[in-house]
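Schema walk-through. Below, the input block comes first and the output block second. Nothing else is stored per chain. Lengths vary across the set, and this one has 242 residues.
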Amino acid sequence: MKLANFSLKITHQLCPVNNPKISKEVLDFLKKLAKNNNREWFLENKDIFKKHEEHVKEFYSSIQLRLEAHDDIEKMKMFRIYRDVRFSKDKTPYKSHFAASFSRLGAHLRGGYYLRIKPGETFAATGFWGPNKDDLFRIRKELEMDASEFREIINKKSFKDIWGSLEGEEVKTAPKNFDKEHDNIDLIKKKQFIFVRNFSDREVLSDSFIDEIDKSFKIIRPYFDLMSDILTTNLDGESILE
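--- output ---
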């Protein structure tokens, strides 16, 4: 564990911050932005946007502090409001939501956390959004060999009550050189391995929202531990890390 992360954890334990929360004004602003998604309106309201952006950034920073009490986080990234419209049919210049991701520390810790705040469409997500070619092949070979521990973790009631079922894009039948009749083909054909939890606006505005986010992220840990073990070893269980 890095000294900086250790200090953050100790500071959080000794001087816990009051429960931060998302204000109704944040959601109201995002609703207005969705209806007035143009540069003229945004420039007229940029000072208001900056105030809400800072408020939400503080909320995300509080989530990071809580994460660092039970995980090692390398960095938080809050995404910019500006959309990249170069290759999109939708030319509206701004996102009508706030979002941030939290990356785990080091090559031995895999997986990541994400939270989007949008009126009527807020969700937390966690898992593996875009495994590279080698990682995806390694996961599939592990599931081909034995998926019992994987299924045991994701089917545990306390896990499913929060995260529901495994989500993510998948191939139609089977990846190349994998048997489409394999008992674990439902897992093997996945290209992403993610879980999503949706929140209503009422939940987002509640005092307990940050507690629910932290509880959700905390319960994903056995899944991350298993996937990290898979992705840092070969099929014989030997470490591939230098």
